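WARN retry 2 of 3 for item q-0093 after timeout on previous attempt; input resubmitted unchanged.
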Amino acid sequence: MTHPLAEVRAEGFARLRPEVTQALLNAPETTLRDFAESWQRLEMDGFMADGGRYRRRRLANFLALPGRPGHERGLHRPHFQASVHNKLNGGVDRWFAAVEDAVVRNPVCAGLLDLGRAVADGLHPGTSWFVEMHQFRVEAAPGTPGLPTPEGVHHDGVDIVLIAMLARTNLQGGETLVTDDAGLERARFTLEGMLDLAILDDQRVMHGVTPVEPANAALPSSRDVLVLTWKRSPPAWR
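OK item q-0093 returned
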């Protein structure tokens, strides 16, 4: 089985199908189910500058240091993106509910953190990393599409981004786009099954996701994803 590092190094991104990710993590079905079920307990994102009420989320942060395995959870802090990276919601501290401790302790979480860190360390050896974990649920209703990336195709302003699908419920749309800085499309795919994921070198490629809407207007509709990011850590954060 080829590790995604080689593909990210060559292309700037890699996509791992669910069966590949699940084999790499080797997590029992019950563990996967418990991890995915936690998305039922996310809280409304109250910082949408477009006034939208279609996104729920939780946030955690970690520090990963050279020569020390794993990720150490940090004190809860706000999420911040510069306006140059997020024209809609950037430039302000955004406080979100914390990821539950049991979710962080779940082996699936640790496995995904280790998978992304292997790519980050492979591209930038000996680096101290500030890592953020975002649980997202985007909801859609008839006539009111959900916007997974309301800021459009963008850089996150980090080094490595891992995006993992947990569940698509009664959904259509939600294509992931990968482009270069000039907007030239490099890839287009739809993350579908549990742990269908993409890993991106945020310095080299941009990404975005098209709007989602219900497949059946009479039923609830949502898109659950995990986003993990690795950013070179300033000394003050160590």
